[in-house]
Amino acid sequence: MITGDHEDLTEHRVSGTAVFDGKLLHVRRDVVRLPDGSEAVREYIVHPGAVTIIPLLDSGELVLERQFRYPLGRELVELPAGKIDPGESTLATARRELLEETGYSARSWARVTTIHPLCAYSNEGIELWLARGLRHEGRRLDHGEFLETFTLALPEAVEWVRSGRITDAKTIVGILWAERIAAGAWPEPGGSGPAPVGA
Amino acid sequence: MITGDHEDLTEHRVSGTAVFDGKLLHVRRDVVRLPDGSEAVREYIVHPGAVTIIPLLDSGELVLERQFRYPLGRELVELPAGKIDPGESTLATARRELLEETGYSARSWARVTTIHPLCAYSNEGIELWLARGLRHEGRRLDHGEFLETFTLALPEAVEWVRSGRITDAKTIVGILWAERIAAGAWPEPGGSGPAPVGA
Question: What average pLDDT does this structure show over A6-29?
Answer without folding.
Answer: 95
